[in-house]
Fold:
Amino acid sequence: MPNSSAGVLLYRRTAAGLNVLLAHPGGPFWSNRDVGAWQIPKGLILTGENPAAAAAREFEEELGVPITGKMRPLGGIKQAGGKQVEAFAVEQALDPSAIVSNEFNMEWPPRSGRIHAYPEIDQARWFTIPEAETMMLPSQRPLLDRLIALVDRRPEDD
Structure:
């Protein structure tokens, strides 16, 4: 799947309703962006790799926490830049303060010759659905409606 990614929309149920875990990308490009910048942990699907396996691998690389819940498909979306993302919903508890992201190297400032290491994810946070609708990357917002429909289904519908 060339130029395709897979990711996980982690969720939990609370007394106040459904929450989703979103990640804020690290690095200088995203450092001053908040509203509309949060997204699901995701990454490229390697040649011959199953999308669910890629989503679980990327989640653990970016957050430092393995997936333990059942992965349920949410389908694909096309991001504004053209990248296809196959998403999976997982119900699982996670303490956002405990994340440890992998890093990437980047020249910054551009053409300076200075290479810096940045975390792929600089923070993760639980959001209510209305908060997520505001904070999430616009092209990923359809995943919220799909998650709500999935969670609202009766077990015998699966």
The CA atoms of residues 89 and 147 lie 7 Å apart. The mean pLDDT is 92. Strands lie at 4-14, 17-25, 42-44, 72-78, 84-91, 103-107, 115-119, 121-128. The chain is about 20% helix and 35% strand.
